[in-house]
Amino acid sequence: MMLNPSAGQPDDRKSSLYSQPQSGAYKSGDKTSPISVILVSNGSRGNRLLFRYPFQRVAECPSSLSAKQRSPYVLNTTGDGLDDQDGDSRFSDIILATILATKSDMCGKKFELKIDNVRFVGHPTLLQHPPIIQVSKTDPSPQREMPTMILFNVVFALRANADPSVINCMHNLSRRIAIALQHEERRCQYLTQEATLMLTVQEEITTMTETDGSPQSPFRQILPKCKLARDLKEAYDSLCTTGVVRLHINKWLEVSFCLPHKIHRIGGTYIPPEALERSLKAIRPYHALLLLDDEKVLLSQLPLDCSPAMVRLIKTCSAVKNLQQLAQDADLALLQIFQIAAHLVYWGKAIIIFPLCENNVYMLSPHANICLYSKLAEQFSQQFSGHDLPSMLAKFSLPVSLAEFRNPLETPAQEAQLIQMVVWMLQHRLLIQLHTYVCLLVPPCEDEPGLRDEEPPLAARVGGRSLSTPSALSFGSPTSSDDMTLTSPSMDNSSAELLPGGDSPLSKRMTETLLASLSEHERQVILNIPAAQNPEDLRMFARLLHYFRGHHHLEEIMYNENMRRSQLKTLFDKFRSVLVVTNHEDPIISIFQSPME
To answer: 492 Cβ partners below 8 Å, 6+ apart?
Structure first.
């Protein structure tokens, strides 16, 4: 179910396949990018550094260096001081091979070593136990055995102050590559063949260096000859750019990996994976899934052995369908829809939104790029001829609903194009959606002004379980009846619908029970409102009381209580003297609406 970000794209990097990135190509201060990738092994030949990338710069000949520095005051610019400060170039190959090729007892575990300002992270993997050389009794000379590899370690060098989540992700990638290499080694001795080729090239370069005296980097010569070296280079380049790694070890086993820090960002700051996980766990059935790529493009990026359920979901997905409707149309369980949607969001192929409808209110994102000649403006003009992006964004300078955005005199085709424009702007995080929240705010008592300061806040006094907070939802159980209905603190799930009407004693008693969490002053103010004289309105207000804390937006209340928007707005208007209505983003999906860097 892993995605292929490079499928269908021309390989325009062949010319620079074997070249090392120029200085400053990757941000030296980026704590999410690795410094280098290193492959070491331990075997009958001892500890060997098979490959490292970016490879260490070769120092110039001392004679030429002295010729350049004729003055003792000339600044030495032959070495990149910034890279040496943040990188691992000061460690020689022999030192790295010694410290990174661990003992057999440490194999199969996380390897983490910090030296000064460099942190090495890997997953040592054992290929076989150390061979025991048996001496024949008849032949006293020891038997000559073929060189063998006992263990190997794919190590990523990071900055010492890298975030712990980045360290865990790099270890995860190292473990995945190690498992694939271990499998191929047992199947066809792939790693042994590649290691032999690397060591052969290193010996050839060493011989040439001793002969002519010109130092050369053996790793530069290894790249065009060794498939494993090119895979490690590709993994390093992908981690430094897109964050999405997709390798085919030995052209057979696929290794897919996603670094969420590179994909989910707000401006120049990445979103912690913990925050992303909390938002994914808080997805509700009334949310919708918006694909960020075209359906054909996204299907072409899927591997051949992907889940058929994912293909079915992508073909059925629409911005106007909530996840519950999507599960019905795709004939999939709602739990499976949640899992696939979370997978697509994690890989940066989709975002969570509220289904498009006429009452949705959108506004220009504060992070949107509003330049007249930006790349997004050019793409918008190419896709929607006759329209320009700045003029379209100007219509959302103030909050506007889709009903106000549409022109009733336009043809259905023009209306459909406007909706496609809104979808395009949502895909590129240019718009944010505003939701309506309601808070109970009773005016303080004028006779006893100090009494209000001693009372606990409404959120502490009003009971009830919140379904919109991440801690209230156990991800994976959205179909249970307990999660689908939000109940009052003192009533069963079904009692809210079975309240007796009129002025019966039972009705009054239940209403008083619901209002018992309020203070005496708050109850008196609410009961003095003219709308409270109507038992039906008062009973509905009491039933929805635990929503009036500013944590539940209007659409969530509609879904949980199975009520119409007009009913809620009418109720809010009748009790407007004690209810404060605000509009802002839904914190659950706000991180998905922020533009990428």
So the answer is: none
Alpha-carbon distance of 477 to 492, in angstroms, equals: 20
Tell me how far apart the alpha carbons of residues 370 and 76 are, in angstroms, rounded to a whole number: 44
| Spatial separation of the C-alpha atoms in residues 571 and 210, rounded to whole Å | 89
Average pLDDT over residues 92-108: 88
What sign results for the dihedral spanned by CA atoms 69, 72, 75, 80? Answer: positive
Buried b (16+ CB within 10 A) or exposed e, 219-229: bbbbbeebebb
Q: Which helix (H) or strand (E) holds 149?
A: strand 149-159
The pair of structure tokens assigned to 119 is 């942190």
Could you give the angle at which helices 565-574 and 535-543 cross, rounded to 10 degrees? 110
Q: For residue 49, count other CB atoms closer than 10 A to its CB.
A: 23
- pLDDT tens digit string along 130-144? 455 454 555 554 444
Structure tokens belonging to residue 155: 């190590």
pLDDT band at 558 (very low <50, low <70, confident <90, very high): very high
Tokens 């809210």 locate to 496
pLDDT confidence of 370, banded at 50, 70, 90? confident
Average pLDDT on 245-271 reads 85
Q: Which residues pair with 119 in a beta bridge?
A: 114, 158
For 159-217, give the DSSP string.
ETT--HHHHHHHHHHHHHHHHHHHHHHHHH-HHHHHHHHHHHHHHHHHHHHHHH-----
Answer whether 0.85 is exceeded by the pTM.
Answer: no
- Measured in degrees and rounded to the nearest 5, phi and psi for residue 264 equal -105, 105
What is the pLDDT at residue 69?
45
Contacts with 311 (C-beta within 8 Å, 6 or more apart), sequence order: 299, 302
pLDDT band at 196 (very low <50, low <70, confident <90, very high): very high
**Cα within 13 Å of Cα(360), Cβ side:** 22
The three-class DSSP label of residue 137 is coil
Closest CA to 442 of 548, 577, 572: 577
For residue 503, is it left (φ>0), alpha (ψ between -120 and 50) or beta? alpha
Q: Which two three-digit tokens encode residue 531?
A: 């709308």
Encode pLDDT of 207-254 as tens digits: 887 777 677 788 888 999 999 999 999 999 999 998 999 999 998 899
Helix (H/G/I), strand (E/B), else coil: 522: helix
**Per-residue pLDDT tens digits for 167-180:** 999 999 999 999 99
User: Residues 321, 330: contact at Cβ < 8 Å?
Assistant: no
The C-alpha atoms of residue 11 and residue 237 are separated, in whole angstroms, by 14
Q: What is the rounded distance in angstroms from the CA atom of residue 43 to the CA atom of residue 148?
A: 6
Between CA 439 and CA 548 the distance in angstroms is 5
Q: Which residue bears the tokens 């790694």?
A: 245
The pairing of beta strand 350-353 with beta strand 288-291: antiparallel
Query: What residue type is assigned to position 353 of the chain?
Result: I
Q: Tell me which of 418-422, 431-435, 443-447, 467-471 is least confident.
A: 467-471
What's at 90, amino acid-wise?
A: R
Report whether 538 contacts 532 (CB < 8 A).
yes
Query: CA 321 to CA 355: how far, in whole Å?
Result: 6
> How confident is the model at residue 118, as a pLDDT?
92
Q: How confident is the model at residue 511 (pLDDT cuts 50, 70, 90)?
A: low
